[in-house]
Design brief:
single chain, UDP-N-acetylmuramoyl-L-alanine:D-glutamate ligase, 297 residues, alpha/beta, four-stranded mixed sheet, 10 helices
């Protein structure tokens, strides 16, 4: 870690008590980008802290994250956010998401006064982080942001994707932006992924990270980089985007966009093969990156 900072990355987003339903079989599991991304970052050797909101009953999950090396700052909430993800094992790429509970919006007092190299704003749904708070965070340092938490809007118990009215002001605060293909099309109206990424970059983000089922595409300094996901199974599909984005941003602390793209794809490939957050070794990541380079060479 850079000695001028207290942590490498501070993640801000709700912990989510997820209800995973696959072919009618139900599992209750911890979730949210702070969980999938935070644990993965710790296992990459990154000094990571998370700021979240959760009901006190969920403290055991917070303690489990601490046991994985993550600093956890939690503000008490009346309930913990909870999302139901419904899958059909025949097609794990498609899911139905329903909101079960919402822990309420973040306040400035919920964000610890610690200095980070990057502030990773990763809400689960719209309403966690408003524009004023996003601007306040961006005044502290570079922001990485997952747009999902600004366009995934609760309507009743359904979670639907809606245009972000404050997109221009919001993206002006962002250095690293993560979108998936559907979100990129929603925000720009463009079906061409690269054209959509260029338009998003025109609002101010320096680097755009676009995830889709086949891999990740990065736009940085006017150049595009692509790397595939090559998992042997999709048993760990939930948390794919969270893992990819956190891995990319963390690698950018020490490496080029091209290497960070390949690194993120390798970790995300491994993560998708097992449920839960990625908790492997950097050796296995480097081995997979070498294999991918040989195939591409």
């Amino acid at each position: 870690m850079n000695k001028n900072y207290e942590v490498d990355i501070l993640m801000i987003g709700h912990f989510s008590k997820d209800r995973l339903v696959v072919d009618g079989e139900v599992e209750i599991a911890p979730g949210g980008a702070i969980y999938y991304g935070g644990v993965a970052l710790s296992h990459q050797g990154i000094d990571v802290a998370v700021a979240t909101r959760a009901h006190p009953d969920e403290r055991r999950f917070m303690d489990a994250m601490r046991a994985e090396g993550v600093q956890v700052f939690v503000a008490d909430a009346p309930v913990s956010s909870s999302i139901e993800n419904i899958y059909d094992s025949a097609d794990m790429e498609r899911r139905i998401c329903k909101l079960r509970a919402f822990a309420g919006p973040f306040q400035q007092a919920d964000i610890p006064d610690i200095k980070a190299q990057i502030y990773l704003v990763v809400p689960v749904i719209a309403g966690e982080v408003d524009l004023a708070l996003l601007k306040w965070i961006s005044a502290r340092g570079p922001v990485g942001m997952d747009v999902q938490g600004f366009v995934r809007v609760p309507e009743g118990d359904a979670l639907v994707f809606r245009q972000w009215p404050e997109v221009a002001e919001g993206l002006a605060c962002v250095t690293y932006l993560k979108v998936d293909r559907a979100e990129a099309e929603l925000l720009t109206g463009k079906t061409d992924l690269r054209a959509a990424a260029r338009e998003l970059a025109s609002y101010g983000p320096r680097e755009i990270v676009v995830t889709q089922s086949s891999g990740v595409t990065v736009l940085a300094d006017g150049e595009f980089y692509d790397a595939p996901f090559t998992p042997k199974s999709l048993a760990g599909r939930t948390g794919r985007g969270d893992t990819c984005f956190s891995a990319y941003v963390s690698r950018r602390l020490s490496a080029s966009p091209a290497e960070a793209c390949r690194f993120a794809a390798a970790i995300t490939t491994l993560k998708q093969e097992k449920p839960g957050p990625w908790a492997g070794s950097l050796d296995e990541v480097q081995e997979l990156m070498a294999q991918m380079a040989c195939r591409n060479g």
